[in-house]
Design goal:
This protein has 337 residues and is of the alpha/beta class. It has two domains: 211 residues, FAD/NAD(P)-binding domain (3-Layer(bba) Sandwich), CATH 3.50.50.60; 114 residues, FAD/NAD(P)-binding domain, CATH 3.50.50. It has seven helices and 17 strands.
Length: 337
């Protein structure tokens, strides 16, 4: 199974890379460990994007919506339509297990044709170029407290009905946390928020932030600021607050504490990361090629641990830069496209 380009990640930016490859006449395959746009699928069911639909468009396919801000359901439908419009080559539910460099062939004119061996949970591939567009929604930041492994604890919030008339604790203060708190409260849950800092996150969507602040101020939703969870037990949770340790009755904990990219995967295949806490991968700003010839990064993973710098709307152009460089290298190697 050989392709000139293998794209790891079937999110919006991975699809954008495939579209550009197809336009350039370069054979490719997308390998996606889950469903199409897997991260978007795992977003809260009722989520509304901060961006407008126009900023989420890829490949020149119009994203039509009647709302000022598109919803998750609309986005899923849109990216399905993009896939079918371009008839993109994608293998779903096929996780990449390892990537290994291979010796280049002796004939320099075909040296871009077999550079990397990619092993998945289904088969093995070879490719001349790799594009890694894996996002950051896979690895949650853990609380690292006793009881975090209990079945009552989740790091992903989906929809509110399950929590109706239950005692729910939401950990965090960003968009996912606020959505979980408001939605479960509106379904009848008794909601308590545990917030590490002294306020609701400043990046919370501007039309939602006043809502959660008002609910907290009126006492409908309880909030402990400058506080952390100390221990989770089957029917209660201990919280470390400025006033000391408080124990609260609890049925479910929704720990929306953020997520991080799989930088270990990059490190294992030899991509260099910055020595600071951001751990930004080393890439060429013009081509997005890493320190390893033939391996490119696209999308939010380019920012390392700074996951708030890159989004769909400001990383769509990564695809054009990468494919332009790959096409140039292929032509210079004597390969006819």
């Amino acid at each position: 199974m050989h392709y000139t380009i293998i794209i790891i990640g079937g999110g919006p930016i991975g699809l954008a890379c495939a579209i550009e490859a197809k336009k350039a006449g370069i054979d490719y395959v997308i390998l996606e460990k889950g469903c199409l746009v897997n991260s978007l699928h795992n977003y809260p069911a009722n989520m509304t994007f901060f961006s407008t639909s126009q900023k989420l468009e890829i490949g020149g396919v119009p994203f039509v919506t009647n709302n000022a801000k598109p919803t998750r359901v609309e986005a899923l439908e849109y990216y399905r339509r993009v896939l079918t419009s371009y008839q993109l080559n994608i293998h779903l539910f096929e996780r990449v297990e390892s990537v290994k460099s291979m010796p280049l062939p002796g004939n320099g004119t075909i040296q871009t044709e077999s550079r990397f061996a990619v092993a998945t949970n289904k088969t093995n591939y070879t490719a001349g170029q790799l594009i890694i567009a894996t996002g950051f929604y896979d690895i949650p930041y853990l609380l690292n407290v006793p009881g975090e492994n209990l079945p009552k604890v989740t790091h992903y919030y989906k929809e509110p009905h399950f929590y109706a008339f239950q005692k729910v604790m939401v950990v965090g203060s960003q968009n996912s946390s606020v959505d979980a708190a408001l939605e479960t409260w509106r379904k009848g849950a008794d909601v308590t928020m545990v917030i590490r800092k002294g306020e609701i996150g400043p990046r919370v969507k501007y039309w939602v932030r006043p809502d959660i602040i008002n609910r907290i101020e009126e006492g409908s939703i309880k909030a402990f600021y400058n506080s952390t969870i100390r221990e989770i037990r089957q029917q209660e949770v201990e919280i470390e607050t400025p006033r000391g340790v408080i124990t609260i009755e609890n049925d479910w904990v929704i720990a929306t504490t953020g997520y991080q990219p799989n930088l270990d995967f990059l490190r294992k295949i030899g991509v260099q990361l910055s020595p600071d806490s951001i751990m930004a991968p080393r890439i060429d700003d013009q081509t997005h090629e890493t320190n390893i010839q033939g391996i490119y990064l696209a999308g939010v993973i380019c920012g390392g641990m700074n996951t708030h710098r890159l989004f769909i709307e400001n990383s769509r152009d990564h695809a054009e830069k990468i494919i332009k460089n790959i096409k140039y290298n292929l032509i210079n190697s004597g390969i006819n496209l």
